[in-house]
């Protein structure tokens, strides 16, 4: 994996403070919160995430519903074009988002009420 030149420059500035850390270990430590964040972003449960110094991240209903519409349109487009494959990433993502909606009915009930729909 290519190294980030900004982390390399930072390491050069602070390596005297951390003589016990090798450069590879320093890179791993700096990148860990981002790897953790990425691993949670692909988790089907879409949990709330808090990373000290960066903030809290949570799922909102409207972007989920917009993503569902986007994936449905893309699946329809590929179906009409004849290019939809069984293992298409849009199908997998759509299923994950639809499952999330089913598992979190209160979050989506509120948005449907605001939009004047009833479930």
Largest sheet: 2 strands, antiparallel
Shape: elongated
Radius of gyration: 21 Å
Strand content: 5-15%
Low-confidence parts: none
Q: What's the end-to-end separation, in Å? A: 48 Å
Structure commentary:
By secondary structure, the chain is mostly helical. It has helices at 5-14, 23-41, 61-81, 89-103, 105-114, and strands spanning 49-51, 55-57. Strands 1-2 form a two-stranded antiparallel sheet. Helix 3 packs antiparallel against helix 4. The radius of gyration is 21 Å and the shape is elongated. The mean pLDDT is 89.
Keywords:
63% helix, two-stranded antiparallel sheet, 119 residues
Question: Which helices and strands appear, and what pairs or packs with what?
Answer:
Elements: H1 5-14, H2 23-41, E1 49-51, E2 55-57, H3 61-81, H4 89-103, H5 105-114
In short:
With 119 residues, the protein is mainly alpha-helical. The protein is built from 5 helices and 2 strands. It folds into 2 domains: 5-57, no CATH class; 61-114, no CATH class.
């Amino acid at each position: 994996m290519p190294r980030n030149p900004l982390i390399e420059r930072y390491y050069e500035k602070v390596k005297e403070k951390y003589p016990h850390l090798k450069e590879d270990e320093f890179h791993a430590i700096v990148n860990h919160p981002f790897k953790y964040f990425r691993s949670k972003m692909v988790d089907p449960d879409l949990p709330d995430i808090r990373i000290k110094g960066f903030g809290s991240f949570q799922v909102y209903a409207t972007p989920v519903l917009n993503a569902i519409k986007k994936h449905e349109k893309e699946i329809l487009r590929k179906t009409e074009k004849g290019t939809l494959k069984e293992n298409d990433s849009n199908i997998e993502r759509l299923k994950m988002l639809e499952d999330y909606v089913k598992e979190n009915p209160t979050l989506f009930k509120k948005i449907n009420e605001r939009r004047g729909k009833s479930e």
